[in-house]
Amino acid sequence: MAQLPRDPLEIREQFGPHLAFSSGSRLDRGVEPDALVKTHCCFCGQQCGIQLKVKDNEVIGFEPWMEFPFNRGMLCPKGVKRYLQGSHPDRLLRAQLRDPAAEGGFRGIDYQDAIGRVAKQLGQLQAKYGNDSIGMLSGASLTTEKTYLMGKFARVCLKTPFIDYNGRLCMVSAGAGNKKAFGIDRAANPWSDIVGSEVVWISGANVAECAPITTSYVWQAREQGAKIIVVDPRITPVARTCDLFLPIKPGRDVALFNGVLKLMIEHDWLDHDFIENHTVGFEALAESVQQWTPARTAEVTGIAERLIRQAAEWWGTASTSFLMHARGIEHHSHGVQNVLGAINIVLASGRIGREHCGYATITGQANGQGGREHGQKCDQLPGGRDLADPAHRAHVAKVWDVDPDELPPPGVDAYELFRKIDRGEIRGLISLCFNPLVSLPDSGFVARMLDKLDFYVAIDFFLNETARHADIVLPGSLQEEDEGTVTQIEGRVIKINQAVDPPGEARQDWRIIQDIAAALGRPHGFTFNHSREIFDELRRASQGGVADYSGMTWEKIERQFGVCWPCPSEDHPGTPRLFEPGTPNPIAGDAGPFYFPDGKARFNLAEYTPPTEEVDAEYPVILTTGRVVSQFLSGTQTRRIGPLVDQYPEPRVEIHPRLAAQLGIQDGQWTTISSRRGELTLRAMVVKTIRPDTVFIPYHWAGKQSANRLTIAAQDPISKIPEYKVCAVRLRKAASPPANASDETSHGHPGK
Amino acid sequence: MAIPENKYFFIDPHRCIGCQSCVQACSECDTHKGKSMIHLETVDRLQSPQTLPVICMHCDSPTCAEVCPADAIKRTEDGVVQSARKPRCIACNNCVLACPFGVPKMETSMDLMMKCDMCYDRTSIGKKPMCATVCPSGALHYGTLSEIEELRPRSRTNNEFRFGGQTIRTKVQMMVPRQSPATHLDVADGMFESPADEADDAMLSGAVFELPTVQ
Fold first, then answer.
1. Which of A232, A354, A567, A681 could potentially form a cystine with A551 if both were Cys, beta carbons 3.0 to 4.6 Å apart?
2. Closest to B48 (Cβ–Cβ): which among A629, A657, A689?
3. What angle do CA B28, B30, B32 make, to 5 degrees?
4. ipTM of this predicted complex?
5. A601-602 and A621-626 as β-strands: parallel, antiparallel, unpaired?
6. Is B173's pLDDT higher than 90?
7. DSSP letter string over A504-541?
8. pLDDT digits 0-9 by tens, B67-99
9. pLDDT at A729 over 50
10. Which residue of B has its CA nearest to A295?
11. A73 close contact with B: CB closer than 8 A
């Protein structure tokens, strides 16, 4: 019974999003805080160090943390204002029970009563339809301790294969590509390697808005002589002053990489020693890219040929370099192929595993890295182990004190989980730290699937748009209300420290999971008293795996400002740079440095296929989606922080003046954008900084402002990442403002 | 306490990414909590994402103070031009109109001119200003001249500006490309749009594209 209990506007009136601004002790001058807690930002994968100012169990502001080496005090606007998520009027202070008769559609109930109801419902569904009838959705903004417990809870307590996480929308194409090429899925270098490299190549990454602190590394590299190449359909703030801008047509990245590799081969800009001694598969790849002449590459990618030649020359002739990419090349039905194409030009150059020779995907979420290593992914066990591998199952089963045969087989990706709801195979859902109604493509389908569930329990600190469909909502914890670790963009495991206690009846998320296990009568393995105990078990579970955390302690992490995995023993300092010549690893032994039995990296054929939905006469314009600097992901937190909402209050559709002129649309006018799945009406933002054949909409908003009403649910066959970056749309000037024009952007004060 | 003599504030518009971290952090400063004193200018969003953070330039001979009929604006001995003093300010707006950089703001709710004071509460005790601490791109930087020379070999500093017949020297340094000559800009040049030169347009000159046929 997971349908909306009341009209969305009535739910919003009660539960938000409402906007929080500074007031009270947060505005008073000269307040002496009780404590300054050294911790990290709760938002993106860079995990900037920050000190939270605490007064009377409330976070009242921040003070820069100058010593933390990654950001040295720097923060983006989200980090500056994140403290406003605490003491928020929308905060869930009690468990909520769906009740259409109650104002706002939910009424507060006693926490233990709620846990009892959840256990009863889950137990009944499993008794009637089998263990597999329950699905779990988890998230990569959680601490690693929580992600570990979520994976264990699915496999050991619920015995369901069906858990997956929102990293499915984020890291999986890069992860799959990295594993195919290197045998390991982690950024290969510390960010300090960017500064000092001769060429920095940025593909599909709006660094300035999505990883703002990384900008300082890129600019400093340039001060020291680096040439910056940016490949993007938009002139992003970093592209504005880069040395070479390649305005690529969305969905064509692998064609560009193949074209560059062909030029590298033609001009012999190759590291033959490296290719011969440390890689396999180059000959077949070299043969396959012969078709990618500069002319054909230009035709497919939509980039002028001279720019492709220039990029290849700079890349080919450099002696040091750093290539980074992000969702721009990964959010595609051939996202893994794009990633492999990027890795191929890195391997052919031989520039990896050395100082200032780097390659990295820019992790999106806070724990995008750690959250994909320890078992909340549908096919994975802790330590980056494989749920289908008998030896891996045996190792983890021993740590968990269960029979390996009892562990379920691999499950399915997050979107397929919704298709299983459609087929009646999944009847009950548990979600934590995931707002799929805003973040998954073709959100009309997602809404219908939520409605079909027999039972849905959401754990969250705010009632996000998906949780509005829940039967029961359990009040979870903010990042500053718990302690644990996350693994940031460089593979550096860092320590999140608790600043305040959860308010009201809110609980730390891992305690809620354990409470459900106890109420189900299956507490074995879920009796941790402190998150440190979870970390210590995780160390043992990861031991000997690729993502080996066994040599880390919380003390060591704080003492060293983080420890990069792998860290296989307590006297091991950690591994900031992967693939250094001669370094051993658990797969290759001393034959390393790459994580295959022969220690060699793999060239992979990276084949170009067009996006799933090409433009046509009916839908003639490409839509691509992305982020703005002041909002984060589905906006559950940032759409509630007043100063961030003021900075960019509502989504706009970016249109080139050439296209706008053809459509008769002027800057600021209401414009209707339609795809085969839905339509939105937004204001136009006419700018010369986007390709004339493409429009852009940021995706942080819900309801009638949600870009994902338009996007296509096509997925990469290997990584299962959705194709957020390309679909076909048509645009027209709207006859009038949308009915939701003033409703959807939250203002005013809470109704409770 | 005072600001150390060797510490300067540097603005590098070339690096600015428009993230508004400075704007948001400024309003967290203890002396003017809840109000930001930074202007983040978007130059021409149609053409480019270029933005420019404007803080008080802290002039050696501040025009704002010179035109103040109430003698409300003071410059500290270490060179920081302060917000108007509350008991003296008559909210006449002379400073707002006269400042060649457009910095002072009239807080009508308080009948008081307020402006960037280079985070005097922080800089006078050895900390960096809030905006220059958080800035993720280095567009705002606080440090010594030798430090900036080492960090930014492609740029040089400039702190002398001419407006008509008036020459102004400032405590705040503007970073400009090392090779570029001093230029004279006629304000009127910016008032009229010249036909865009497509060869200079990174998008139109670099993209191969077809526009859809619209029915």
1. A567
2. A689
3. 80
4. 0.95
5. unpaired
6. yes
7. TT---HHHHHHHHHHHTT--TT---SSHHHHHHHHHHH
8. 999 999 999 999 999 999 999 999 999 999 999
9. yes
10. B208
11. yes
Inter-chain contact B212–A662, Cβ cutoff 8 Å? Answer: yes
Q: What is the CATH number of domain A21-85?
A: 3.30.200.210
How far apart CA A514 and CA A118 sit, in angstroms, is 12
Quick: pLDDT tens for A91-118. 999 999 999 999 999 999 999 999 999 9
Residues of chain A with CATH 3.40.228.10: 172-361
Domain A95-170+367-564 grouped into CATH 3.40.50.970? no
Which residues of chain A make contact with B209, given a CB cutoff of 8 A?
Answer: 249, 302, 691-693
Scan residues 2-21 of B and list those with Cβ closer than 8 Å to A.
14-21
Among residues 47-76 of chain B, which lie with CB inside 8 Å of chain A?
47-51
| Chain B residues lying within 8 Å of A647, measured CB to CB | 20, 24
Rounded to an integer, what is the distance from CA B150 to the centroid of its chain? Answer: 22
- CATH of region A172-361, choose from 3.30.2290.10, 3.40.50.2000, 3.40.228.10, 3.10.450.50: 3.40.228.10
Query: Which region among A1-5, A233-237, A268-272 has the lowest average model confidence (pLDDT)?
Result: A1-5
List Cβ neighbours of A561 (8 Å cut-off, separation of 6 or more).
Answer: A49, A67, A68, A69, A70, A494
Q: What is the CATH number of the domain that holds B175?
A: 3.30.70.20
In this structure, chain A runs to a length of 752
For the residues B16-34, what does the mean pLDDT come to?
Answer: 94
CB A197 within 8 A of CB A357: yes
B 132-151 → A contacts, CB under 8 A: 133-138, 151
List CB contacts (< 8 A) between A689 and chain B. Answer: 48-49, 203
What percent of chain A has a predicted confidence (pLDDT) above 70?
A: 98
Give the architecture-level CATH label for domain A621-733.
Beta Barrel (2.40)
